[in-house]
Amino acid sequence: MAVNFTGNWKHVESENFDDYLKAMDINFAMRKIAAGITPKLEIQQDGDSFKVKTIGAKTKETSFKVGEAFEDEMQVGKVKVVPSIVDGKLHFDIEGPKQKLVIEREIRSDGRLYQVMKAGDGTTCTRIFAKE
Questions:
Q1: What is the DSSP letter of 23?
Q2: Please, which pLDDT band fits residue 74 given cuts at 50, 70 and 90?
Q3: Residue 98: what pLDDT?
Q4: Angle at 74 (CA atoms; ends 87, 124), nearest 5 degrees
Q5: Which residues share a beta bridge with 65?
Q6: Most buried by CB count within 10 Å: which residue of 7, 28, 37, 132?
Q7: Are 99 and 108 within 8 A, CB to CB?
């Protein structure tokens, strides 16, 4: 695994976030709350093991190992997540109660972390984080 995601990352920009949340069947009030939050990610990576702390409206910690499925809780309910590395990207296949989702995280040449999220209907959103 060539890429190291370790670091503290602050959200700086979103593309198509509201449409993505609509596709996820998130109601208007929750979409407006989500749009006003500037989340931070604290990522610790040790080989293929990860600990991710997301700090936003709530603080949430998730630990996982690439290749090992785990259960998680998202806004849409309980989900099964299968993490993998695909072309240097941290890739998550997510089986939700109503739809399948895909999330990919990658560090691009500008040094920022790009989190591309794809809803079951194909609607995509990109959330961009800068290293603190």
A1: H
A2: confident
A3: 86
A4: 45
A5: 49
A6: 7
A7: no
Q: Which of 120, 125, 121, 123 lies closest to 104 in space, CA to CA?
A: 125
| pLDDT above 90 (res 69) | yes
Rounded distance between C-alpha atoms, residue 8 and residue 130, angstroms: 8
Q: Which residues contact 28 (CB under 8 A, 6 or more apart)?
A: none
Is 70 exceeded by the pLDDT of residue 1? no
Provide the H-helix boundaries in the chain: 17-23, 28-35
Token pair listed for 24: 């996820």
| 112: amino acid identity, one letter | R
**Using an 8 Å Cβ cutoff, are 119 and 21 in contact?**
no
Q: Dump pLDDT digits (tens) for 19-64.
A: 999 998 889 999 999 999 999 999 999 999 999 999 998 899 999 9
Tell me which H or E stretch contains 22: helix 17-23
Cα torsion at 22, 24, 29, 31 (round to 10°)? -70
Task: Look up residue 107 and give its two tokens.
Answer: 């560090």
